[in-house]
Design goal:
homohexamer, 136 residues, Tetrahydropterin Synthase, Chain A, 5-stranded mixed sheet
Amino acid sequence: MAVSVCRIAHFNAAHRLFNPTFSDHENERVFGKCSNPNYHGHNYKLEVWVKGTIDPVTGYVIDLKVLKELIETEIEDRFDHKNLNLDTTEFKNLIPTAENICVVCWQLLRDKLDSGLILTVRLYETERNVVEYSGD
Amino acid sequence: MAVSVCRIAHFNAAHRLFNPTFSDHENERVFGKCSNPNYHGHNYKLEVWVKGTIDPVTGYVIDLKVLKELIETEIEDRFDHKNLNLDTTEFKNLIPTAENICVVCWQLLRDKLDSGLILTVRLYETERNVVEYSGD
Amino acid sequence: MAVSVCRIAHFNAAHRLFNPTFSDHENERVFGKCSNPNYHGHNYKLEVWVKGTIDPVTGYVIDLKVLKELIETEIEDRFDHKNLNLDTTEFKNLIPTAENICVVCWQLLRDKLDSGLILTVRLYETERNVVEYSGD
Amino acid sequence: MAVSVCRIAHFNAAHRLFNPTFSDHENERVFGKCSNPNYHGHNYKLEVWVKGTIDPVTGYVIDLKVLKELIETEIEDRFDHKNLNLDTTEFKNLIPTAENICVVCWQLLRDKLDSGLILTVRLYETERNVVEYSGD
Amino acid sequence: MAVSVCRIAHFNAAHRLFNPTFSDHENERVFGKCSNPNYHGHNYKLEVWVKGTIDPVTGYVIDLKVLKELIETEIEDRFDHKNLNLDTTEFKNLIPTAENICVVCWQLLRDKLDSGLILTVRLYETERNVVEYSGD
Amino acid sequence: MAVSVCRIAHFNAAHRLFNPTFSDHENERVFGKCSNPNYHGHNYKLEVWVKGTIDPVTGYVIDLKVLKELIETEIEDRFDHKNLNLDTTEFKNLIPTAENICVVCWQLLRDKLDSGLILTVRLYETERNVVEYSGD
């Protein structure tokens, strides 16, 4: 009996989209105002979905308190109130698009979860722009 | 042509997480403040997704008025403004975690739906804790 | 590495549910107040999900500005502030249920998207009634 | 001790903005796509706020079940799944802008409420357009 | 220059509406299913608004981290995951309607805030039932 | 007959809280992680409320299309996808707390609105932190 459980978290960060192999003009053409050299920022909302079987002793797939703390340690402590381009190792050589942030969050959490659990991460960059990754 | 339709409903209930085979100390250690002997409660939000083919005569997969009434009869009348531990038969011997509540809602609705329809139930226990079950 | 990205859009439209082969009485019986001959209306909310691989040069699956413009051209310009029954060709001979509107939006967008991208459309007719279609 | 209580309700309606003393061209210039002759529509969300003293016997300012039924009788039965221009007496000679709909809802509820209660009505025409009236 | 700032918090609690001077039948008549003897519960959402002047040295009316901690100490520690009727002193002799809970939260916070600040508390008992109190 | 109308808008920006007359240690003590020298960011949501009388010719207090364009010109073009500390003149010598951003938005809009209209601006910095200013 496979059930999915989800914990929702948030982090607020600055970022800038640009490709260092592009000219300034090319970055402006591809990324528009998202390439502002002085950065802009977002309230990122993260949905972390974990699918597995219910433990009959606890009624839990995973204790959501444990999942909440894992998200705090792996994601919030790393990215909250940070400049993704300047303050993190993950985006030193990776453009911090919503797609890439979502995949990085998935990888950071995947490494810490029991291998029997299936993980999906959904990231809201704004109310109208969303990304999801399941490791496919 | 398989389309999913969803009706959203709510019920407000008290519950307590505890395993009768645990000591008080063990219940406190595993379930924390959720094991408060005097109960606490939630506004549960339920998304009921039904997948099937569109009837060309009506343009419906299922009449959402019918689905709404089914949720009222099977779920809301049973659980709304109730104590899940004390007032229901379903959780007499089953810990009312969000996972188990979601599976029970799925089973109650599954019994009443045409077998050609695929059912998924998503349950929000809080704004940040969610569970989903599809019968896998 | 397959990632899904989503852009959310809105359109406000009038419609009426009725089957021209039904008697007035039959339309009233099947569609209830949704068959009001003078129409009623909704704020439709549309989630357009596109799944594909991340382009390493841009970090994008699809530029969301491009997807936003595609939704404006194909969906909003066609349906926003319109009467779906009277002002559109798509619903001249198709009952504008949420199911059919969702499938039509999927088809309009599918025709314009690269064939390597997987498309899912989710349509909220109200806060509590939702439909989703993935082309299955 | 003056406390405000609020009940939230919804109605879905078609409407059209136009002034019969205007030319078609003038209606188009002033109201834009909102003057589409075939109508468009909205999910209207209504917040009804009632301010008064708490009855120490019940702990209520007003029983929200009573307020809910009053909104159903006075507002929902009148406007839900209707064409505001064609199906109502209130907007036969009054342009159904969000402002005027809000004032009309306030007047309909004001007539039925105890004169000791202060009434405020807030109307959401879309997620981003809102109107409020307090009888000033 | 008077600016209002708001911090939003949550607590999940069980409660029951009943007046001990009423007969069972009278409690049932007045409070309906809210008087279930075994309790039900809610996710309460609390908006705490504080109005005052901006300190030019910090740009703050009040440090929202301080306000957040005050709400945790005064409200969440007291009411979260509790049975309001059984586990609190505040509702031993006061019916825990949304109105009374809102006024009690206001009083608890008012005692701890600088007297130069104006306080308003808004409490959501459900998505559709809300209460507000400003000390009038 | 005084009615309030509201238009909701958004802008995404980077910022940093610090007082240049403070030591680094003092900035860290007062502003915590909000003083990160490399900035962080938010999705700011802005509610612009305008109160006035309904024009009987149009049924409008103010044409919301006009208000929407005013917010775009005065607020979004100035602050969206910007670093508030580095890219704006308004916050060169003013700490960009939510309080100060709200007051600045109010002032920018106040200058462009008819003096007969009353203006209130509400700013959401996150889902849980909100500020409101009415010019008092």
